[in-house]
Structure formats: structure tokens, C-alpha cells
Design goal:
Layout (H helix, E strand, L loop, with lengths): L17 E4 L6 E2 L1 H12 L8 H7 L5 H8 L5 H20 L4 E2 L3 H10 L3 E5 L4 H10 L8 E3 L12 H10 L6 E5 L2 H9 L3 E5 L5 H6 L4 E3 L5 H10 L7
Parallel strand pairs: 1-4, 1-6, 4-5, 6-7, 7-8
Antiparallel strand pairs: 2-3
Helix pairs in contact: 1-4, 3-4, 4-6
């Protein structure tokens, strides 16, 4: 479904264009696996997350914030142990074949490569998750930079991950677009001064637009996504 393009600002002439992708919920549909992994570590205390609680307290958040919320009385070391246990469980589930690539992901990355648009993966996931995921998806060589939770002190919703990616790639905010699916991710990109395209893989289009997304699409195969990027980056029509 075609969406209105809000706040379209063209890339300044002569500046390199950059396209920065979130991972979970954006490039790959893995939220059900994260949900199951979190419920596994909550089960010993007789707790579990329904879909609404998962979206509110987990989706897009950094692990340290999630663990502090669910285990407020635990030590920092114990929270770290629980986070590592959860991520190991997630990787086991993902390796067993539970990962679905978002429609259009490979084509979008190939388009960026043809158009000489720099690409980055910017995620709150630990590097072990990120590297395993892009290998499973067949995208290990698709990114010019990968910024994970292990690379920065503060994750999303802080702007630090996006600022680190732009610094590494030599990008300006005006020449960069982020693709996200969560409110913390959108907040991080906007705090870094980056325009955001949002995927309605978990949240409603209305919620994503209210959060400040310039464009909302269902997946990465939407032709409107390419139209937006062609205009945003002031590129000629893709070949």
C-alpha cells in the first residue's frame, strides 16, 4: 500500500549516501524466537510475557535495560549471565531454522551495492547474534560495517549505534537513511538526525508514523521504498 512521504530532504550534492538497517524485525523476522528465549529465562520465576508485554518491554530494547526491568533485584553479574543465557537460547532456536528473511531484503541490499550506497547493520543484538544471523540469511558480505551491542556503551534508543556507523562510513546524517521496525530503533535514528523508514512487521503504521517515521511500508519489497530512496538520495532511476 502506497504511503505518503513526510519530511523528504534531499542528500546534499557530493556526499556519500548511506543506508543503515536494523536486524531483528527488519532484515529478519525473529521476534517469535526472542519471545520464546525470554520466556525460557522467566519461567523459573513463574513468569511469562504475552505479545503486548513483549512489544512494550522487550522489542527493540537493549539487553541491560530489559534485564534491569525484569530482574531489578539481581546483581549486574547475574543480569549479564541471564542475558547471555537468553542469547544462547535464541541462537540455538535460530540455527534450527526458525528465521525468515524479510521479503525484499536481499534485493534491497543488492540495489544499494549497484548504486554505490554505503550499507550498515546497526543492532542492539550482541555481535555473536549479528554475525550468525547474517550468515544464516546469506548476507555476510552485504554490509560495509556492522555495529552491535558489543561495540558501543549505550544501545538504542540512544543515538550512539547510528552515530558510530556514520562515523565509520564517513556519512552525514542528511545523507543517511535508517530502516527500523521498533520505537526504540526509530528514536535512536531520529536522535542521530537520520531519516527513518519503518516496517510495520510488529507495530501499526499509525504508531510508527506517530513516532516520526518518514515512510511506513509492509516489507522491503515495496516499490514505494525505492521511490523514496531515489528521491532522498537524489539518484537517477535504478537500473
Amino acid at each position: 500500500m502506497k504511503q505518503a512521504m513526510h519530511g523528504l530532504t534531499t542528500r546534499p550534492a557530493g556526499q556519500r549516501a548511506g543506508l543503515l538497517f536494523d536486524l531483528d524485525g527488519t532484515l529478519a523476522q525473529t521476534e517469535h524466537l526472542h519471545h520464546a528465549a525470554f520466556n525460557a529465562i522467566l519461567a523459573p520465576s513463574g513468569r511469562s510475557l504475552d505479545d503486548e508485554a513483549f512489544l512494550r518491554h522487550v522489542s527493540g530494547q537493549a539487553n541491560h535495560a530489559i534485564m534491569a526491568f525484569f530482574f531489578p533485584d539481581a546483581s549486574i553479574a547475574e543480569r549479564q549471565r541471564l542475558a547471555e543465557q537468553k542469547e544462547a537460547s535464541f541462537r540455538s532456536l535460530a540455527a534450527s531454522g526458525g528465521v525468515d528473511v524479510t521479503p525484499g531484503a536481499a534485493a534491497m541490499l543488492a540495489w544499494a551495492r549497484r548504486r554505490h550506497v554505503a550499507t550498515g547493520l546497526v543492532t542492539n543484538a550482541p555481535r555473536a547474534n549479528a554475525e550468525m544471523m547474517i550468515a544464516v540469511l546469506g548476507l555476510a558480505a552485504a554490509f560495509d560495517v556492522v555495529v552491535s551491542a558489543d561495540d558501543i556503551a549505550r544501545g538504542k534508543p540512544h543515538p550512539d549505534p547510528y552515530l558510530a556507523a556514520m562515523d565509520t562510513l564517513g556519512l552525514s546524517a542528511l545523507a543517511t537513511v535508517a530502516i527500523e521496525d521498533s520505537l526504540p530503533g526509530i528514536a535512536a535514528a531520529r536522535a542521530a538526525g537520520i531519516g527513518v523508514i519503518a516496517l510495520s512487521t510488529a507495530l501499526t503504521a499509525a504508531a510508527l508514523r506517530t513516532s516520526g517515521a518518514a515512510l511506513v511500508v509492509d516489507d522491503l519489497a515495496d516499490p514505494v521504498l525505492y521511490e523514496y530512496l531515489e528521491q532522498r538520495f537524489a539518484l537517477h532511476a535504478a537500473t
